[in-house]
Write a structure and sequence with these properties.
alpha+beta; Alpha-Beta Plaits; 5 strands
Length: 109
């Protein structure tokens, strides 16, 4: 499983993109994949229902794409939600390096 954590030119988190499966176990028993998916879906829920941010995203089997507007990136609630999600996924990647890879990408524009 690969998770791209994107930061904008001001080093604020701007999006998450996860693809593939962790391969820790069979798909229906893969707790590593389930953990990452749950964290990212919880961030989506938190952004929409707690921070009241209009997010853009899609979820299909083996893929999750989530982006939030630039105007919301300085909001303390948004920052708390997405930074916690990013750090949680990074921690899982440290614990399961053969199964989860986190890539930090930068938008310099």
């Amino acid at each position: 499983m690969e998770v791209v954590v994107r930061r904008d030119s001001r080093n604020r988190l701007s999006s998450f993109f996860a693809s593939g499966h962790a391969g820790w176990d069979d798909l229906d028993k893969d707790v590593v994949c389930a953990a990452v998916a749950t964290i990212l879906q919880s961030a989506w829920l938190g952004l929409e229902e707690v921070a009241r941010v209009d997010v853009q995203g899609s979820k299909i089997s083996g893929r999750l794409d989530l982006c939030w507007p630039e105007t919301a990136r300085d909001d303390a609630a948004v920052r708390a939600i997405v930074e916690t999600a990013a750090r949680s996924v990074e921690r899982i990647a440290q614990q399961y390096p053969a199964n989860v890879r986190v890539i930090v990408a930068r938008d310099d524009g």
